[in-house]
């Protein structure tokens, strides 16, 4: 349960009438009126109710050719995530997710890596993965495919940057579980095929896919969509019988 920071009402997030994000923290409200009061003077209310930081999971190419302009976009994405106060989650792997983590670190953002390994030693030597840009590494011992579910379910918002079959698996999990997903257009890999793939799925899981070629705008659009309506159905596994339609 959460508390409305304006009126102090106890709220089940599923039934919240509104939500707002302020400096990366999620706040839930009993009414739009309380939300408006909060946003007009957030510093008056932020200490009156506990909040949780929103998480952004960035999944993408860990090997292959890394174009310089896409590396810069991934780095800038990490900076944007940190600037907004969100927590970055990646697979603690090389490539575009690593560049994103580097960007977040440059802005003193919080970065969590979800490793397929059992330990730091296995992470570095068996999986040849970096360990120098993360605040926390979670060692799942689940292997490359096993840790994908943890990555996705730990992320409020998911971003796809390039990627091959492994990233496609992460996209499929996010889509099937009704997540909000951002795709960095023009980043190569599977991203060009995703619109056609989504159409071919022929099913509505509640997932929302947003396409954008600029990393700053992509994170902004994800944040806006999540706080406006998608927070009400973050996963298709949540019992939606009484949820408010987005």
Shape: globular
Number of domains: 2
CATH class of the largest domain: Alpha Beta
Strand content: 15-25%
Order of helices and strands: EEEEHHEEHEHEHEHEHEHEH
> Which percent range fits the helix content?
25-40%
Order of strands in the sheet with most strands: 9-8-7-6-10-11-12
What is the CA-atom radius of gyration, in angstroms?
18 Å
Q: Terminal Cα separation, in Å?
A: 20 Å
Structural class computed from helices and strand pairing: alpha/beta
CATH architectural arrangement of the largest domain = 3-Layer(aba) Sandwich
**Uncertain runs:** 241-246
Discrete helix count: 9
Give the number of DSSP strands.
12
> Mind summarizing the main beta sheet?
7 strands, parallel
Please, what is the average pLDDT? 93
* CATH fold type of the largest domain: Rossmann fold
